[in-house]
Design brief:
The complex is a heterodimer of chains A (118) and B (114).
Chain A lengths: L3 E4 L2 E4 L5 E7 L6 E7 L3 E10 L2 E4 L6 E7 L2 E6 L8 E8 L12 E3 L3 E5 L1
Parallel strand pairs in A: 2-11
Antiparallel strand pairs in A: 1-3, 3-8, 4-5, 4-9, 5-6, 7-8, 9-10, 9-11
Chain B lengths: L3 E2 L5 E4 L4 E7 L6 E7 L6 E6 L3 E5 L2 E6 L4 E6 L8 E12 L2 E6 L3 E6 L1
Parallel strand pairs in B: 2-11
Antiparallel strand pairs in B: 1-3, 3-8, 4-5, 4-9, 6-7, 7-8, 9-10, 9-11
The chains are: A mainly beta (118), B mainly beta (114).
């Protein structure tokens, strides 16, 4: 258990409304990620963060923004939700370096948020 | 060509048999490889990571990596009904503008028949 929570777990919203999803971690991980998962597309990276106030775009970032004001929280905002953003959203963290070991790149996922835009 | 390719399945195996899940990737500079298990309606769970050519065993799971053939596989011995899930292959392509990009396949659905 990587100590990751996501909120809300389920949300239904209307087209054009803003939506913010929250990812919270308790183990001081530097790297955090937002993915969406859709049938036939697998997991696709939306945005990622490599530290407080340090974020960058992934492969499907259009229509999304992120913020990270504290190490433990990574927020994903849909400024004006569209039906194409109906999806399951997962937050992930990258595991810590093992002391004296090679760099590790394993990612661990939160429980997900199911978002429906009507 | 997809960066990471998996047969979507379903792959059906009888209980107690060996399940063999396969994954190919397109980028030769890929450095590390992961297998995730995802139950329906749940988040992906990391079950194996492999960094070097050859086999890596962990309990009933064995990951096999062949970088020359750009091929990674997961073997599940003594398959149990509880192993029925979708298995995602993920590949770390290494540095991409400072970011260690991980690309996921779309998954293979495994069904273990009692």
């Amino acid at each position: 258990d990587a100590g990751i929570t996501q909120s809300p777990r389920h949300k239904v919203t209307e087209t054009g409304t803003p939506v913010t999803l929250r990812c919270h971690q308790t183990e001081n991980h530097r790297y955090m990620y937002w993915y969406r998962q859709d049938p036939g597309h697998g997991l696709r990276l939306i945005h990622y963060s490599y530290g407080v106030k340090d974020t960058d775009k992934g492969e499907v970032s259009d229509g999304y923004s992120v913020s990270r004001s504290k190490t433990e929280d990574f927020l994903l905002t849909l400024e004006s939700a569209t039906s194409s953003q109906t999806s399951v959203y997962f937050c992930a963290i990258r595991g810590h370096l093992a002391p004296g070991r090679e760099v590790r790149y394993e990612q661990y996922f939160g429980p997900g948020t199911r978002l429906t835009v009507t | 060509q997809k960066e990471v390719e998996q047969n979507s399945g379903p792959l059906s195996v009888p209980e107690g048999a060996i399940a063999s899940l396969n994954c190919t990737y397109s980028d030769r500079v890929s450095q590390s490889f992961f297998w995730y298990r995802q139950y329906s309606g749940k988040s992906p769970e990391l079950i194996m990571s492999i960094y070097s050519n050859g086999d890596k065993e962990d309990g009933r799971f064995t990951a096999q990596l062949n970088k020359a053939s750009q091929y990674v596989s997961l073997l599940i011995r003594d398959s149990q009904p509880s192993d029925s899930a979708t298995y995602l292959c993920a590949v770390n392509k290494g540095n991409s503008g400072g970011y260690q990009k991980v690309t996921f396949g779309t998954g293979t659905k495994l069904q273990v028949i009692p």
